[in-house]
Amino acid sequence: MDANDQGLCALFPAHRQYFQVKFTVEELEVIQSCNDADDNTFCINVRELMSAVFASLLWGHLWKLAPHEGDSHVRFWIDNISAVAWSNCKSSRNGFAQMLLRILGRSDLQHGFYSTASHVPGADPERLSKFLASLGTLLRAGELSQSSSKHYSRVWGQWVAWCSMMRFSPWLTATDTDKNAEQLGAFAVYLWKYGMNRQQKGNTFSTICAKLCAVRWFHRNTAGYDPGVNASHAILLRGIRRITDPVVKQRPQSARLLRVIFVDINLTQPCDQLLWGGLLLGYFFLLRRSGYLFIGKRVHSYVLRLSGIQCFDTNEDPVPPKRAKVVGITLHGAKNNPFGREKIRYHYKSKDRLLCPVRADRWVYKAARTFATRPGDPALSMWNSGITSDAIRGRTDLLSR
What we know:
By secondary structure, the protein is α+β, with helices and mostly antiparallel strands. The protein has three domains: 2-120, no CATH class; 129-243, Tyrosine recombinase, N-terminal domain (DNA polymerase, domain 1), CATH 1.10.150; 255-399, Topoisomerase I, Chain A, domain 3 (Alpha-Beta Complex), CATH 3.90.15. 48% of the residues lie in helices and 12% in strands. Helix 6 crosses helix 8, helix 7 packs across helix 8 and helix 11 packs antiparallel against helix 12 (357-371).
């Protein structure tokens, strides 16, 4: 919606329609008179509101839904704060504006919709520039997941501390690649030897690469440039990779291992009920440990919550766990979805009486009643703690030998 001293206009994107209304000579004279006398009777605020009212009279019949669907919601986007406030409050001290609001209310009632208004910034270049800059900052901050952002900030703190100890500037140059390679290379060697930890235990090759990546990302995000390096830096990293001990790969869970673990579990105990349910959920839904287990006494923000486990029948209607034929889990965060949006996964009941995702759901809910777990708590909670990754690893390592 928009208006000026010449007329009104509005866009209806859903139907690819628009209108333009030009004021008559008499109306133009009234506008000029109000502007000269500083009279707000027919001021720009009123004319901006008039564009919304005119749109409701012209397109109101298109906004009506079927009788069983209730009233539709129509939002007016107006670049005038006063018109937005009047439209939302349905009230104004301006007599002409109040008359327009009564017309808008009558149109709402006639066509079965209710309207609200939101403000859209105008064409002020300086104001628009500030708005776009703040929006760009928000989008850049959203590039990383919450856990990655914390990790990058922690690494930057280590980098600053190391540079202070070595009497280097933490800010690399934008053009001198040889100097950057020398400083980043020294940092990589220090990490490989001492690791920036209390035990002074060296980091693995993958950890070193992740920390170097964090330092360069911080420069791109904060200083606006990527500190380049030369070929000797890549040769140094390949040497570190060759000398570093290979990472011991963990074996994935298997159906055979789960059956062996089941023999050692006492399902009359709530702790074992929760442990078994967690093992089955992790197995069937391919969950990483941070997605459903406690790491020590802490959990990540995207951990599976009790309310995220839902039971359905074959018609996809919610049912109690005992009647469930389908189980669905809701995952949150960018670790589970690259866009950071929630993601729902489903599994049907299996024909195996032991290894079944729906039975996993039942065991988790049965233990949750004993531990009085609230819907918003992590699904594998046990009062002040929960099923940890160490407990899972200890049980599987012991029985897989």
